[in-house]
Specification:
Blueprint lengths: L7 E6 L4 H16 L3 E6 L17 H9 L17 H12 L5 H10 L3 E5 H7 L11 E3 L1 H9 L3 E4 L1
Length: 159
Amino acid sequence: MEEALTEKVSLVVLSGDMDKVMGAFIIANGAAAFDMEVTMFFTFWGLKALQKGNRTGKSVFGKMLGVMNRGGADRLGPSRFNFGGMGRWMFKKMMKKANVIPLPDLIRQAQEQGVELVACEMSMQVMEIEKEDLIDGVKLGGVGTFISDASESKFSLFI
């Protein structure tokens, strides 16, 4: 009897915008619910979603970036209409009223379903983000990690 191949999905998360990151995690959770093997590769601004929210950086530029681009799922703003943070607050209120699962819960749900979260090592080096700055359960990898997964995937998305 021939063994069925595992269906795989690969997502690149480049954006650090709340709405795009939420979309990525909704797709990842949906694919995992369909018993698909899911890998999410976070690079550059997308790393914000995996950060704990502490300040990062060691050099002057790194510290400046860490202040201006402070990560954490609860700190992400929408891609439009952020209004200096008011947009994030407004969207959270509206999503709660509509019973939409908050982003930190979507991330937890993905991890519970076995979605593999991979942080781009090169982006981390450039942005001076350390492994300790990331939430638990995140693996580190390079572009080869993504290419390897994507080459075996039924589909790949760039968000």
